[in-house]
Amino acid sequence: MVLVDVHTHFYPQAYLERLVREAPGIRVRTDAQGRQYLEQHGTRLATLTEPMVDLPHRLRLMDQLRVDVQVLSLTSPNVYAFPDGTAVEVARLVNRAYAEIKGRHPRRFRCLASVPMGTGAEIQELEVAVRELGLDGVVVGTTVGDRTLDDPAFEAFWQRADQLGVVVFLHPMGGFPPASLQDYSLVPLVGFPVETTVALARLAYSGFFDRYPRVKVIAPHAGGTVPFLLGRLDTGYRAYRECGGTVQPPSQALRHVYYDTVNPYPPALRCLAEAVGPQRMLFGSDFPHVIGSVEAVLRSLREAGLDGDALEGVLWRNAWHLLGLGETYPSV
After folding, report:
1. Is this prediction's pTM over 0.85?
2. What's the pLDDT tens digit per position in 267-278?
3. Whose CA, among 25, 31, 236, 254, lies 20 to 30 Å from 213?
4. The domain that contains 12 carries what CATH number?
């Protein structure tokens, strides 16, 4: 069995040092279980597990889990936590670190660049990352500060991303959640899937998929609640003037998106497969977050009823095509 995991995260050490030292509102805390984690303005973002920062340890775990290829990206807060000038520097630092990792382990890792959205340098960094450093796409937050991805300020970036036909992985930011999400770790558990849902709905209603058909969007967390809400989103398309100005209704537009499998619950994965088709699903685990599990996702995919060619596509073949991992398939 070949396994390509499109949703995994890694913090280069130099990035982490600058984040803690220079990003306003970022602190390292220790939880009741003795684990260190990043906090942003009082909100818990990411637990600093060993494979999140230690590449040799990560490779050993990949071998144990029988994961052939991981796609690395920064999780929250990405480079958005820095002032503009610093964000540009840190994005370049991260992308060069990822290019070095990919160069040393070309059979094990693919990497998504970070771009300093909203600074005016995002297009230049996209060009450098994809065309010079050879990275495999970009990771973009579902929001950039208080701006959404359909904001006109980002139009030039999306135009260039469309021209390049790049992979764009969306990732929730969790930066300033309402008080109702502050307890029980509800920011990652509930807030992140909601952020994904809202971002996808806004892209669909704004005509993003009409204007930028070559951008290859990957949505995390099985699309949040999008598979469940497609009918309701189409109802809005018919009922409200502000929702109906696009060529494609949401149920059609959002079938252009690829969805990872970070929702290890068989009925949810079954709903996703029925809503968009297994050909639009990519294996993702959220490794090495404490709530990410390769084994749980594998088990849930099988319990959801995916098997044969459909399961093989989800586990590796769909990502193999999307990311251009090679001319020929691996032996399976």
Report:
1. yes
2. 999 999 999 999
3. 236
4. 3.20.20.140
